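can u do me a favor
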C-alpha cells in the first residue's frame, strides 16, 4: 500500500494533548496514517535516545519514518562538501535509529554559476558522498533528491531524474508536486510527470498547494485553499496505477495530518475504481 502521512506535527496533534514527536506514531496510526516525515531542515537537534524511542513507536504502530535533511546543504558548492557530508551522515544515523531509510535532500542552488556548472558540481559531490557513505558501512538508505519550487534552485524534474540515474540503488526522486506546480506557474502537466516517473519502482512524494510568484515558490497553503491548486484526483489516478512502494507526505500549513487523511481518502477512492 502507498503510505500517507504528514511532515511535522499538525495543530490537532497538540490540541489532542501530545507534546513531542515521540507521540506521533501512535497518534498518526490511530488516524489511519502510516508515514511520518521529521524535518531537520533548520538543524539536527535530535538525540540518539529520542530517535530510538521514536523508532520503537514507529515499529509498534507501523508508521514509516522519513527524514528531511538540513535546507542549507548545497551540493553545487564544492567548498561545503565536508559539511554537507556531515549533515547527510548524521541525518542518516538518526533515520536508521528511527527504523527509516528515506532521507529527503535538497540538492542545492545555482549561486553565481551557470546551470551546467552547478549541475556538474552536484553530480560530483553526490558521487563522492555516496562512495563515502558506502565505505563507512551505510547500506540501507535512500537519498531522495527533491524537486524544488524556485528557479534559482537546482532540481526541476528532468534534473532530479538525471541525478538519480547516477546510482539507482541509492537515489530516488522526492517529487514535490506543489513545488513543480510553482515552477510551471500553475500549469503542471501531470501526465508528463507520471510518464517520467515510470522507470522508478518507488518514489517519495510531497503534496501540498503552494502559493507562487515570478520567482517560484512563496508559501505553503492547505488543501482547502484552491487558488494555487492542481487536480488531486488526477494525481491519485496516476498514483493508484503505480507500484505500491510510494510514500506520500503532506506538507500543508498547520493541518498536514488532517490533509494527509484527505489525500489518503482520495487515493482509496481511486484505487477502488482501478
Ligand atoms: Zn524539501
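np, heres the sequence
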Amino acid at each position: 500500500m502507498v503510505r500517507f502521512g504528514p511532515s511535522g506535527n499538525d495543530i490537532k496533534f497538540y490540541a489532542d494533548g501530545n507534546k513531542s514527536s515521540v507521540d506521533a506514531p501512535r497518534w498518526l496510526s490511530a488516524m489511519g496514517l502510516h508515514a511520518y516525515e521529521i524535518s531537520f531542515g533548520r538543524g539536527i537537534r535530535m538525540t540518539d535516545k529520542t530517535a530510538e524511542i521514536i523508532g520503537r513507536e514507529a515499529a509498534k504502530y507501523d508508521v514509516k519514518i522519513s527524514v528531511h535533511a538540513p535546507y542549507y546543504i548545497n551540493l553545487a558548492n564544492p567548498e561545503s562538501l565536508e559539511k554537507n557530508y556531515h549533515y547527510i551522515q548524521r541525518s542518516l544515523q538518526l533515520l536508521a535509529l528511527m527504523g527509516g531509510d528515506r532521507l529527503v535532500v535538497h540538492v542545492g542552488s545555482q549561486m553565481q554559476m551557470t546551470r551546467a556548472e552547478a549541475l556538474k558540481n552536484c553530480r560530483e559531490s553526490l558521487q563522492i558522498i555516496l562512495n563515502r557513505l558506502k565505505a563507512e558501512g551505510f547500506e540501507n538508505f535512500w537519498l531522495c533528491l527533491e524537486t524544488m519550487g524556485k528557479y534559482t534552485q537546482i532540481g526541476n524534474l528532468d534534473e532530479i531524474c538525471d541525478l538519480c540515474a547516477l546510482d539507482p540503488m541509492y537515489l530516488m526522486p522526492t517529487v514535490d508536486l506543489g513545488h513543480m506546480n510553482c515552477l510551471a506557474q500553475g500549469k503542471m502537466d501531470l501526465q508528463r510527470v507520471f510518464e517520467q516517473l515510470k522507470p522508478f519502482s518507488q518514489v517519495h512524494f510531497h503534496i501540498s498547494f503552494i502559493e507562487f510568484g515570478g520567482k517560484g515558490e512563496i508559501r505553503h497553503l492547505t488543501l482547502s485553499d484552491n487558488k494555487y491548486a492542481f487536480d488531486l484526483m488526477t494525481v491519485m489516478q496516476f498514483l493508484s496505477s503505480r507500484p505500491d512502494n510510494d510514500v506520500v507526505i503532506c506538507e500543508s500549513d498547520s493541518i498536514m495530518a488532517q490533509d494527509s487523511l484527505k489525500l489518503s481518502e482520495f487515493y482509496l477512492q481511486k484505487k477502488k475504481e482501478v
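Residues 3-273 form a domain with the TIM Barrel fold (CATH 3.20.20.150). hope that helps!!
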